[in-house]
Write the structure tokens for this entry.
Amino acid sequence: MNYISTRGAIAPIGFKDAVMMGLATDGGLLLPETIPALGRNTLESWQSLSYQDLAFNVISLFADDIPAQDLKDLIDRSYATFSHPEITPVVEKDGVYILELFHGPTLAFKDVALQLLGNLFEYLLKERGEKMNIVGATSGDTGSAAIYGVRGKDKINIFILHPHGKTSPVQALQMTTVLDPNVHNIAARGTFDDCQNIVKSLFSDLPFKEKYSLGAVNSINWARVLAQVVYYFYAYFRVAALFGQEVVFSVPTGNFGDIFAGYVAKRMGLPIRRLILATNENNILSRFINGGDYSLGDVVATVSPSMDIQLASNFERYVYYLFGENPARVREAFAALPTKGRIDFTEAEMEKVRDEFLSRSVNEDETIATIAAFHRETGYILDPHTAVGVKAALELVQDGTPAVCLATAHPAKFAEAVVRAVGFEPSRPTSLEGIEALPSRCDVLDADRDAIKAFIEKKAL
Ligand SMILES: Cc1ncc(COP(=O)(O)O)c(C=O)c1O
Ligand SMILES: N[C@@H](CCOP(=O)(O)O)C(=O)O
């Protein structure tokens, strides 16, 4: 399988090179040249596979330059760190299917991809005899998952930028209490969008990228999206009564990575009727789906802080397909976005969007009320991001189609919101016990590209 850029200016490369490249060198995002469409027989034969075997079947279609036994070994090691035997189990509560994605080491869906990506990096660096400096941005969950994916690994340094004071306290501690010498946390005085812009700009500085062998752990890295495709298949096989029955997935969305993974699964032939894109009050993507309005606004702080994002980095991957796989048009639209502040779509394109997605923006009161009502009615505690997706599904799916809501984080990561909703703190998994008392390390810097670049240069391998 070869990979191309959404902006069309790189020669096709294999999977291993795509993982190492992260952001495409022409500023675009990497995508497989074709997305394999699977026949009914293949899909039916996957129905009863374990998570690890399913992951191997899906990932090997896109990673055919890794020998099968090596890939199997990478997958097995990556999911051995999960606390649930099914890795991503589905539970049913009052007719709503909850796909629990928080059984990894840092209690959020990011572990599903980042445990694998950490092992993949280690494998590829050993094979190439190279080193890597990872640079990533986080609104709270990617950071700790990436750190846990590579902490203590040889020949890898990791620099994670998070917006100072804008994550939940537990999210910040999950990052800053990791004291391995290869881990560097930077709290930037700014928003997640500032952090993500700085990271993208460092990746676009090709001499810098090359000199320090920058590696990407954000969902700009195709391997992130690919690993997340697997759980859509896994959940479908747990929920559909008969193969072929259509289901809906409701996805709380920030950077458009998770929902793009669902879109890939749909293009591969999984019977997904629609994807529900649920946002908090940072609702540029909901405005786009419901009214064709893709115009940038200001980011606001919410009780689902990991989704406090304006500029969703994977949206460009979807726009590539929406524009009929026309890289020149993608390049033009995204090059003009920072100055123009918007992208315009035709009515025919919007019709296609509405056939594939439904969307709902969920406000603060609705999020808290959903956590409270769901707990009252089922005894189950949702985290505030998951609650955004559940609220959207309850409102938008009324015709009996099975709705799978992605539970993207454990509620204990967002105790303050949960207390507001149900009046008590959710019980803590053992990994969080006593975390406040642990020593921590973090540098606070201005959200200034040059200051952060200088910091990285000083500490890089
Ligand atoms: C807990 C949680 N839920 C949902 C999201 C949104 O996922 P995505 O950025 O892939 O859209 C994020 C991060 O963005 C998150 O950390
Ligand atoms: N919510 C994310 C934001 C970064 O998204 P990514 O999927 O591109 O890594 C986070 O928790 O950091």
Notes: Residues 1-461 form a domain with the Rossmann fold fold (CATH 3.40.50.1100). The mean pLDDT is 97. Residues 108, 139-141, 219, 252-259, 306-307, 385, 408-409 surround pyridoxal-5'-phosphate (ligand 1) (CB under 6 Å). The first strand starts at residue 3 and ends at 5.
